[in-house]
Write a structure and sequence with these properties.
mainly alpha, 2 helices, 0% strand
Amino acid sequence: MKTYGGFLISQIRQLSGRTFEKILKEKGIDAFNGPQGRILYVLWE
């Protein structure tokens, strides 16, 4: 039996990245991109 855990994790990461980028765009935030936003959020918390 083969497992595709790595592939599924990669797919989830890509989807969450796209979702975060969409939220930033909807909110009109263009000062930083998705990865930068995730880092800033963690630092802010």
